[in-house]
Amino acid sequence: MHARKDMLSDELRGLHSLAIIGMEKNAGKTTVLNRILEEARQGGDLPRPLAITSIGRDGEEKDVVTSTKKPKIYVESGTLVATASSFLSRCHLTKEILASTDVRTPLGEVVLFRAISDGFVEIAGPSSVEGVRSIKEAFLAIDPGCFYIVDGAISRKSTAGHFLTEGAVLCAGASLDPSMRVVLKKTAAMVEQFQLPAAPKMFSKVFSETQAKAAICEEGELLEVEGDLAFTMASEIANKLTEKSEALLLRGVVTESFFKSLLQKVSLKGVQVVIEDATRLFISAGYIDLLKRQGVVLEVLQPIELRAVCLNPFSPRGADFEADVFQREMKKMIPIPVYDVGRM
Amino acid sequence: MDISQKEWRDIGGEFVFEQLNTMTPYGSQRKAAKRFYRPQHREELLEELRAVEAYLQALKEHPSSIHYLQYEFCRVKDIRRSIERAKKGGILEDLEFFELKIFIDVIEELMAKYPLMHTTLACELRGLDELRERLDPEATGRMTFYIYDAYSKRLTLLRKHQRELEARISKEKDEQKKEELLRERSSLLIAQDKEEREIRMELSAIVQRHADTILGNMDALARLDHRIAKAVLAREYGGCMPEIAESGGIELSEAINPLLSSILAKKGEDFQRISIRVPTGTSIVTGANMGGKSVSLKTILLNAMLVHMGMFPFARAATVSLFDFFFYLGDDFEDISAGLSSFGAEIIKLSDVLKKSQRQRGMILLDEPLRGTNPREGRAILLGIVRRYIGTDHLLMVSTHFESLVEEGMLHYQVRGLKDVDFDALASQIEVDREASLSRIRKSMNFCLEEVEAGEDVPRDALRISELLGLDATLIEEIKELL
Question: Are B144 and A88 inside 8 Å of each other by CB?
Answer without folding.
Answer: no
